[in-house]
Amino acid sequence: MPSYIEISYLDIALASLLVLSNGLISILLKLKLEKSLLISAVRMVVQLLLIGFVLKWVFSVDQWYVVLFIIGIMTFIAGMAAHNRNRIQYGGMRIDALVSVWVSSWLVALLGLVVVLQVQPWYSPQYVIPIMGMILGNTLTGVSLGLDRITHELTQKREQVEMLLALGATRWEAFKEPAQNAVMAGMMPTINSMMVIGLVSLPGMMTGQILAGQDPEQAIRYQIIIMFFLSAASSMGCVLAVVFVFRRLFSTSHNFMYWKLQEK
Amino acid sequence: MGHETVLLKAENLCRIDPVSKVMLVKPASCIIQRGDRIVLSGGSGSGKSVFCRLLALLDPPDQGRIFFNRQLVTQADIPHYRSRVAYIRQRPVLLKGTVQENLMFPFALRINREHHFSPKKITRFLSIIDKPDSFLQKNAADLSGGERQLVCLLRVLQLDPVILLLDEPTSALDRNMVMQVELLINKWMQLHDEARAYVWISHDEPQKQRVGRQVWRMNAGVLTTGLV
Question: What is the dihedral of CA B56, B58, B59, B63, to 10 degrees?
Fold first, then answer.
């Protein structure tokens, strides 16, 4: 017997009435958002119900290859999203974003699940899927912000980069300042969220565990290690992405190939 | 013409626009010798700036090679080569901070790790252009366009380059500042007993007369070198 209140479809229907208040505001203020609101609310419900079925199936099959397949798809979608959000692009950016997200999130997940949490068996969907989801969400933000910042910095500071190269700076010396700014931009959200966590926001996972009747202390310990996973994965992803950009845009003959950067 | 007077020799440098695939500079060869004061002239879009950037290896040549002091310039030499063959752009770029900080930062680069900032050297240059030492404490953001260009020149000259590639350094400056820049570069040539050289891109006829002893012409990507 679970120690939490089960939610029926009737409860969901009741809660959905609250969305109507959004619709009402939109109509009253003539925001013309009713359609987007309706679509987004319906999408949210359908997507979550669908993923519910998928998760139920994955949990019942409980095979390593199914779990790998699911997190593979999740990683792929995160990688694509990290690329799509950027306005300035270069050839190969999609693959760079994907590899950055992939390598950093899987490496951190591997360390976290196998070394720290020692999940048995290693592919237990109950742990792997939600933790991977959180790691991917953060890595996606880190990579996306890092890529966005570095491409903007390099576009704006093209003359400064060239001035440095013309003075005899190596390609790395010319790239350093934009790179630092980009990595900082990519890591900021994680640092900020760690700064205020527990004071301003109670993280979703911890709240969920507490709602499910878990000991708050254990829930908090989980949250702490998750925060470390998230910050490690997002900063690693961001650094990787910036290094990939470096390799794409700076040749071994210390040229800045600015022409490869193009606005979408 | 003894061989030792040749500073730089470029063979068949050419550049194709990486996006449009148009040939911006057709295979061009040239020699720069000690004491050369070369003016590079040509209409806008003729490829003179691209050629200047090719000589500085700021844009990679699609073909051709450069010999500097009779040595073929290879990939690994490029930072050193650029510190010897200095490219000065039309629009000066300074970093945040004072004039002095802008003059000091090149010494933080690996290429200059064995050199040190010399206030004496700078004072000597400043006296040429009639600037007091207090100029060094000015904030780079407060300088006029001309002063910015002078700082960029000082930044390069203090590192004792061998060849200057001047890509329209004065085209945005007022007359007084143009004279200061010309004076500084002329003095620099004299100080080194004409052992240095420059290639100066200019649009201004009187200036070409003042600074050039040789004229190279660029016309639709084709370079012609020769005496005036």
Answer: 40
